[in-house]
Task: structure prediction
Amino acid sequence: MKNNQFAGELVNRLKELRLKRDWTIKHTAEKIGIGASMYSGYESQLRLPPMELLSKIAEVFDTTTDYLLGSPEKVEQTKSPTDIEWILTHENINYRGIELTYKDKENVKVLLKMLLENRMEPMNDVGCSIEEGRQ
Result:
């Protein structure tokens, strides 16, 4: 693959991953830990990210450096497809005919975490009172 093809593929992947999450260039740059103009340069193909930054970019986008560099994406399924975390991360999800954005999915994760934490508190209280009753 020639350098121009490589750079073009990287640019396409960066834009695709950012837009899929409904992130701005500024927000993406902050997550990576660089300036917005620097990241904008990557997406506009004015500059290429240094090799040492590619792993951070891949981590932020929850993908691999291989995918950023042009390899076909291979989703390694380590969790059950019924695991909500996995589904929210890897699947396109619709609610009443409207596709959830990356931000929507992140909000769902936060809400589920809050619900489960609240559910666990009363169970812990009951567990303590049962133990006290046995003594």
